[in-house]
Amino acid sequence: MGLILSTIRLIQLNSMRLNLEYKLMLINTSRLQLSTSTGDLETLGSDLDPDSPESKALQKRMERLRVVEQRLEEQAQRYQIQLKMIESEIQSVNSSIDSNIQMAYGR
């Protein structure tokens, strides 16, 4: 790969990396908010009779929040895998750029 193409690819990869990091930050923020909401619901439901309709409604709500949290966790894991792949390719492109510079300037 030529120096110009390698540089363009490096810019693309960095953009992709930043995009994934941003998405991971949003997911982590959402997961934190979900955990807080679930904790609040658990605290609220601790004073209720476990067989009451209100308690059962809270349990269903907490279960739905846990499902959403699990889906966010799975998505975060997929993004982490993609991020590792991109970081690996960034290292490869950086090596290519270094090689092209050494060849061009005879170092």
Please, could you describe this protein's structure?
The model has no long low-confidence stretch (mean pLDDT 92). With 107 residues, the protein is mainly α. 90% of the residues lie in helices and 0% in strands. The radius of gyration is 23 Å and the shape is rod-shaped. The chain contains two helices and no strands.
Notable traits:
0% strand; mainly alpha; 107 residues
End-to-end Cα distance: 19 Å
User: What proportion strand?
Assistant: under 5%
Number of strands: 0
What is the succession of H and E elements? HH
Q: Categorize the overall geometry.
A: rod-shaped
Please mark out the parts with pLDDT under 50 across 5 or more consecutive residues, or reply none: none
Biggest beta sheet attributes = none
User: What structural category do the secondary elements indicate?
Assistant: mainly alpha
Mean pLDDT score, rounded? 92
Number of helical elements: 2
Tell me the radius of gyration: 23 Å
